[in-house]
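Lecture notes, continued. The same structure-token format from the folding unit now serves as the input rather than the output. Read the line below as a description of shape only.
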């Protein structure tokens, strides 16, 4: 039986001390000379919060496959999405750079398109590196890194006035030679995809729950019967980007709802930052949708288990790095917040589990992992650290992954940028103990928030005015982050 861990147990094991400069600049070369590079399977659903893992003993959710996977993996319960919304996360993941450096300062849609918020053709993504090093690469599911342009693609997520979904042409796919993806599309029972053969006007529509269909495609890619999906003589990298547990929450198969039969919202909502009784937007949302959200998580868990089984059946377990994470979390009524894009733990914290048998020892580690760190860490683990560009702002933690030893960051950046206003918005940091945020807007007083996540794990109290010395120390560390990243917010 998988041991359940309390979040405070993890936090107590992390490095002591409040503030120091984030100087983790060294990159391990432990696997630089590997003769046979490993395969990579990277699975990340959308909007799955870090609390929604059964073995973590936080949300009362059912995730038997992730429980088993965690027992075989390095689990990082303090991994975060530094800008917890879809497109900025995905751009940080692909480029290893923070938003002001990669140009994706908000979600890719028609409202941000005039500012060219989309993944750049000339950015060198980790997938470009693997492609150049001889990998076959596949991308399945949600991409959301292209700016919509007129005439907008005709689909339910787009209208004549506003658009979200856009085709990614082959010259913008950054090395992925097997393509079965869409921009953003939220009809989970009738998903649409552009394939290698599709033009912008010829996506395919499917009548199957999205994660199940994407797991089918991933299994086909892994099995590769007749060499149909990839070169069987090359290592491969496969990304599976599922949309659920993203809204609409009610679009979930009944068999996953059945896992919560007899449960009421009182059984499922255990977070005191949710209004259980009041007639508020957040409280009503939580009460009405918590079962659907957890059922979606259970469905994602089921499909992830199918992908793991395929790797085992094909004899690929030992040679494949498997990552499970998410692009951001979901407040689902906590603090009266509807979804994400805020500093709260439910929004920022994401699952991060990585398995590489005999190379990465299964354990839990309190490492403060940031999204841009994933790129250099994976390349370093796979033997390609020397191919990481100097422009990458993330830091490799490959040595820490494999040995448990190495320099550790003391904080993680948090940010939110209003569309078209790169010097304004929210900036903050999350440390081993505190979450600290400053909000700036034109002709508006500056607002400061400080939460003590040890003494107040549900972030119910803002203690900024009563702890000026902590605010001062964290302000210094935040400014170090922003200077290093060239963020114009410092001058606003």
């Amino acid at each position: 039986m998988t041991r359940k861990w309390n979040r405070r147990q993890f936090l107590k094991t992390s490095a002591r001390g409040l503030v120091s400069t984030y100087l983790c600049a060294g990159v391990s070369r432990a696997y630089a000379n590997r003769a046979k590079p490993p395969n990579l399977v990277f699975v990340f659903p959308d909007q799955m919060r870090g609390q929604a893992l059964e073995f973590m003993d936080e949300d009362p959710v059912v995730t038997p496959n992730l429980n088993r996977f965690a027992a075989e993996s390095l689990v990082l319960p303090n991994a975060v999405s530094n800008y917890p919304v879809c497109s900025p996360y995905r751009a940080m993941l692909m480029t290893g750079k923070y938003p002001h450096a990669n140009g994706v300062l908000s979600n890719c849609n028609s409202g941000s398109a005039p500012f060219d918020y989309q993944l750049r053709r000339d950015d060198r993504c980790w997938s470009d590196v693997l492609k150049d090093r001889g990998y076959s690469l596949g991308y399945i599911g949600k991409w959301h890194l292209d700016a919509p342009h007129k005439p907008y693609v005709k689909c339910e997520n787009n209208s004549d006035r506003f658009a979200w979904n856009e085709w990614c042409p082959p010259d913008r796919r950054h090395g992925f030679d097997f393509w079965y993806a869409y921009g953003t599309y939220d009809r989970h029972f009738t998903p649409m995809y552009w394939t290698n053969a599709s033009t912008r006007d010829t996506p395919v529509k499917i009548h199957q729950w999205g994660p199940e269909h994407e797991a089918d495609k991933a299994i086909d890619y892994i099995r590769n019967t007749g060499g149909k999906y990839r070169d069987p003589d090359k290592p491969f990298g496969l990304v599976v980007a599922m949309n659920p547990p993203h809204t609409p929450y009610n679009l979930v198969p009944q068999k996953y709802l059945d896992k919560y039969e007899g449960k009421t919202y009182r059984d499922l909502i255990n977070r005191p930052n949710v209004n259980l009784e009041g007639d508020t937007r957040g409280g009503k949302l939580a009460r009405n949708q918590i079962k659907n959200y957890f059922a979606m998580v259970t469905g994602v868990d089921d499909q992830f288990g199918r992908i793991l089984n395929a790797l085992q059946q094909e004899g690929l377990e030992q040679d494949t790095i498997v990552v499970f994470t998410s692009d951001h979390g979901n407040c689902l009524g906590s603090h009266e917040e509807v979804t994400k894009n805020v500093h709260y733990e439910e929004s920022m914290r994401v699952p991060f589990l990585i398995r590489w048998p005999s190379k990465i020892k299964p354990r839990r580690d309190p490492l403060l992992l940031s999204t841009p760190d994933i790129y250099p860490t994976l390349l370093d683990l796979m033997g390609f650290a020397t191919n990481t560009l100097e422009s990458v702002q993330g830091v490799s933690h490959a040595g820490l992954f494999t040995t448990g030893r190495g320099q550790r960051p003391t904080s993680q950046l948090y940010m939110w940028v209003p569309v078209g206003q790169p010097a304004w918005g929210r900036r903050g940091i999350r440390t081993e103990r505190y979450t600290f945020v400053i909000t700036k807007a034109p002709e508006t007083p500056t607002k400061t928030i400080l939460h003590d996540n040890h003494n107040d794990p549900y972030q119910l109290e803002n203690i900024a005015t009563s702890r000026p010395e902590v605010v001062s120390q964290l302000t210094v560390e935040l400014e170090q982050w922003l200077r290093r990243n060239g963020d114009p917010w410092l001058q606003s």
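Point for the exam: Residues 1-34 have pLDDT under 50 and may be disordered.
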